[in-house]
Amino acid sequence: MSFDTINLEKGMYKTAGKSFSQVLESLDPSENYKNTPLAGLDAYQRQLKRFDIKVSSRHSDSVEKFFAATGSASLFPEYVSRAVSAGMEQANLLADVAATVTKIDALDYRPITTVGGTVLDAVAEGGQLPTTQIKTQSNLVTLQKRGRVLQASYEALRFQRLDLFTVTLRQIGAAIARSQLADAVDVLADGDGNSNPADFIGMDGLALSYADFINLWTELAPYEMTTVLAGNDMMADILAINEFKSPEAGTGFSANGQLVTPLGAKLLRAPTMPAGTLLVLDKNCALEMVQATEVEIDYDKLIDRQLEQAAISAIAGFAKIFPDAVKGLN
Fold first, then answer.
1. Second CATH level (architecture) for the domain 197-289+321-329
2. Could you give the CA distance from residue 141 to residue 186 in angstroms, rounded to a whole number?
3. Please, is 251 exposed, middle or buried when counting C-beta atoms within 10 Å of its C-beta (0-12, 13-18, 19+)?
4. What angle do CA 140, 145, 149 make, to 5 degrees?
5. Nearest Cα residue to 77 out of 226, 241, 85
6. In which element (H, E) is residue 190 found?
7. Which residues on neighbouring strands pair with residue 72, listed in sequence order?
8. CATH 3.30.2320, the chain: domain bounds
């Protein structure tokens, strides 16, 4: 089937276990376009080309271009989804917090936990090896629905350029990502409902010092301190510590916007962190992200140009994997 003969309709958003893009890809595989002018485009991008819809650059089309031809309106919800997802990715800090992402097709998920020491002592001949027990937790993961309702009439949007509309959609995605980070911080600090809050230690003195970081690094062992999460107040205090003023740290921040501590951990700003507290963790084993939906769109309303109450949302939750792989300071 050629990309320009596919019959586009809203039912393609209802295919179980597949996104709209995946349905398109199954009908029009990208591998068929190797060594052609369309190589490098996915199935959705080929549909945009089919209807001559330009979604970026100063030459982008207006919103009404999606509704100019029969079938092309079905492409609009996927455009919205991709723009929101791009905003989430741009603001996403969870890659430095969550060890793994588990995708589920339900709203109930029971996490696992591991019981057993992290240091293995030598075993004498004939002795019994220590046991690591993996078991399910008592309580389900709390899944949070985060999103916004897009309120705008088609008449208000139809002449707006798509590159400008994309900016708004990306900001919605960024807000969802920031909310999910706040949920992750809550679970890291307070636990996931299975009696596993983080252990907090007190500061050495009246003000935050480099010695406090050494204490956290020591307390976290044998786990690695890969990530430091701090609110606005603690972030300002951290950056005032002499050891954090190294030329290497400044070079990294100016190059890619990332701050690294003298101990090698990445320093992330988490605005919802309670004042006077910070968290350190091993991102490789501390937290599991459970994702019930990525970006969910009211595709019916968008296709039918009923934008007054079109919801954009994502559902996710978090669970502790190794509770001792996170420590707090207050």
1. 2-Layer Sandwich (3.30)
2. 13
3. exposed
4. 170
5. 85
6. helix 162-190
7. none
8. 197-289+321-329
Residue with tokens 């020491």: 117
Asked whether 113 and 320 are in contact (CB, 8 A), the reply is yes
- CA 17 to chain CA mean position, Å: 20
Residue 227 CB contacts under 8 Å (≥ 6 apart), including other chains: 96, 97, 265, 266, 268, 280, 281, 282, 283
Cα–Cα dist 303/71, whole Å: 10
* pLDDT tens for the chain, residues 1 to 330: 688 889 999 999 988 888 999 999 999 999 999 999 999 999 999 999 999 999 988 889 999 999 998 889 999 999 999 999 999 999 999 999 999 999 998 888 999 887 766 666 677 777 788 777 888 888 999 999 999 998 888 888 899 999 999 999 999 999 999 999 999 999 999 999 999 999 999 988 788 999 999 999 999 999 999 999 999 999 999 988 888 876 555 455 444 556 667 788 999 999 999 999 999 999 999 999 999 988 999 998 898 887 778 899 999 999 999 999 999 999
Give yes or no for a contact between 241 and 293, defined as CB atoms under 8 angstroms apart. no
- From CA 131, how far away is CA 72, in angstroms rounded? 59
Q: Which helix (H) or strand (E) holds 43?
A: helix 43-50
Angle at the Cα of 238 from the Cα atoms of 237 and 242, rounded to 5 degrees: 105
Element (H, E) at 219: helix 210-220
Closest CA to 139 of 320, 283, 323, 326: 320
